Amino acid sequence: MDHIKINFTVSEFVFLGLSSDPKIQLVLFFVFLLFYVLSVVGNIIIITIIQIEPRLHTPMYFFLTNLSFLDICYTSTNVPQMLSNMVGRKKTIPFASCATQMYFSLSFGMIECVLLGVMAYDRYVAICHPLHYTVIMDPNTCVQLAAISWSSSFLSSMVINVLTLSLPYCGPNVLNHFFCEVPSVLRLACTDTSLTELVVFVFSIIIVFIPFLLIIVSYGRILLSVLRMRSASGRHKALSTCASHLTVVTLFYGTAIFMYMRPQSKSSRAGGKVIAVFYTVVTPMLNPLIYSLRNQDVKGSLRRAIRKQKT
After folding, report:
1. Does the predicted model carry a pTM greater than 0.70?
2. In contact, 79 and 32? CB cutoff 8 Å
3. Degrees (nearest 5) of the Cα angle 289, 291, 294?
4. What is the DSSP pairing of strand 92-94 with strand 12-15?
């Protein structure tokens, strides 16, 4: 019973945020508000274009729809809380709300890792086995792969969060962050967290590193296949279909691996907050821009949609 009481001594957490200077906070508020609006609107446009354009009803764009919807959910889990803290006097969050935010934030981050791996496999099948593409990546398989991405990540996040929240939190309650994230919450536990950190590291390897290996292997096979192509236009077309995905992978995985695949004792808290800004705010905002600016099919569909609206 004493252990249970200690666990719930902390009823709320206080955010330090990105800056304590009110002027800087105000500037950051408008910057991140702009990023958030661009992220939500941009991803809604991508989803809408894919739904109304029959030419985009392919496995590649089915997974892109999942990614765009995921980015809306991911950024909406963290950014509104951050914006509220920047302009509000009370920069606190109840323990239960922090637990909920931490669960969904981690879940959505994990889903993006797995989904990017699935999208790399889709590009591998399309380029290396074009004659069997429609058979291998049939609608049922695509739905199953998307369902596995979502369900496995939600379950993995639940395990990590249960272990994290079962630790005793008896003070202090100041989070050196702008949202509730597992590494920052673990630092406030009133006990040894090495076992929980090990579990987080193991799940990071499973959910982050294994899809990353799938991406590396898929693009390694794609590169070999492209080098064998005799047609320069064929090589360009094959690589252009992968350019957007590779850019997104670099942005998201680069920051996620830096944040979660390092021992906690060696991590920089200030640096960790900056890195977190990239994968929770910047990347979801850039994804629709990357896919619209670097993808000829999306740009063509967007131009046709605009012309229809004008007529």
Report:
1. yes
2. yes
3. 95
4. antiparallel
Dihedral sign of CA atoms 276, 48, 302, 52 in order: positive
Segment 169-192 mean pLDDT: 85
Sequence letter at residue 46: I
Q: Concatenate the DSSP letters of all residues of 188-240 into one string.
A: T-SS--HHHHHHHHHHHIIIIIHHHHHHHHHHHHHHHHHHH---HHHHHHHHH
The edge-to-edge listing of strands for the beta sheet with 92-94 is 92-94, 12-15, 174-175
Kindly state the tokens that stand for 96.
């239960």
d(CA 234, CA 226): 8
The answer to whether residues 161 and 181 touch, using CB atoms and an 8 Å cutoff, is no
Exposed / middle / buried, residue 124 (Cβ in 10 Å: 0-12, 13-18, 19+): buried
Structure tokens at 92: 């606190």
Radius of gyration of the chain (CA): 21
Q: Return the number of other C-beta atoms located less than 10 Å from residue 246's C-beta.
A: 18
**Local structure of 92: helix, strand or coil:** strand
CA distance 164 to 100: 12
At residue 21, the 3 state secondary structure works out as: coil
Non-local (6+) Cβ contacts of 71 within 8 A are: 39, 43, 112, 283, 284, 287, 288
Is the pLDDT at 218 greater than 80? The verdict is yes
Q: What's the rounded mean pLDDT across residues 166-195?
A: 85
